[in-house]
Amino acid sequence: MKKLLNTIPFSVLDLATVVEGKTPADTFKNSLDLARHVEAWGYNRYWLAEHHNMISVASSATSVVIGHIAAGTSTIRVGSGGIMLPNHSPLVIAEQFGTLESLFPGRIDLGLGRAPGTDQLTAMAIRGERFNAANSFPQDVLKLQAYFSAENNKNSVRAIPGEGLDIPIWILGSSTDSAHLAAALGLPYAFASHFAPAQFITAINIYRQNFKPSAQLKEPYVLACVNVVAADSDAEANRLVTSLYQLFMGIVTGKRRLLQPPVDNMDDVWDVYEEEQANQMLACTFVGSKETVKQDLQQFLDQTGVNEIMATSHIFEHSARLRSYELLAQVFKD
């Protein structure tokens, strides 16, 4: 049976982007403003992601920013998309998210990733002697689940707060690796198709085919994160999205900058190789008027059958970013 957009939840991934001429303090102010707006517009959850040593991403202390957003809103779920678990001990994350859930009961999500969320040199600075901690990611997820369990009260190491709290754990993926883990543990699976679309279909098929029901989840649940730039016209959206293109050109070339203003013609900015590389990463990007975005997103839903769509929007002007999310809410509600 065909799913329609108005039958599935829709959510936000905020990469806490720092724009040219602004500071992280400005970013956090705008993030809270966005969160309050999308809460009113009916969005389901608002996630932030752990990145390090990236000039344009301000959410390195992810748990702190989650607290900032949750404190300024009242109903929307707030969480991580994700916490890069190999960067931390499971006990510390259990305590941090146990604290968040105690402060904001019933509203906190814990999405977990295996990658470092940064370059190798920075990962070494974060992890130290635990540099190869990614190899123990499956075991660390199980440790985290144990710390949250009420049964852990008999153990000598306990997460206070955290123990006995119902905090949904998600597994994040950008390749097929974590699909097997999410399926084996019976956890919901969130895929980073907004920057790593190449293995998206393969990964969600692996997850669905191998899924084992758990206490948290009876059936497979796939959330896909995509890029969305919506505006009142296709022409305006196609101009606004050039900020996203410039951001990904920086990823391709290794020359990262703060989010740049839109330009009239990207051909003046990037070469053919940079354009091709960026477009491969941006295959799951939806740009245009409300009508255009609705048509393209419905086609995406038809092809993938995902349970939830999460949108991230790298837009230079805060007012234009708000408008994009407002139009997207209309896409899902109409």
UniProtKB/TrEMBL annotation:
One MF annotation (Gene Ontology) recorded for this entry: oxidoreductase activity, acting on paired donors, with incorporation or reduction of molecular oxygen
CDD domains associated with the record: Flavin_utilizing_monoxygenases
Gene Ontology CC entries for this record: cytosol
Luciferase-like domain sequence ranges: 10-307
A Pfam family matched in the record: Bac_luciferase
InterPro entries: Bact_Lucif_Oxidored (IPR050766), CmoO-like (IPR019949), Luciferase-like_dom (IPR011251), Luciferase-like_sf (IPR036661)
Entry keyword annotation includes Oxidoreductase: yes
Protein name: Luciferase-like monooxygenase
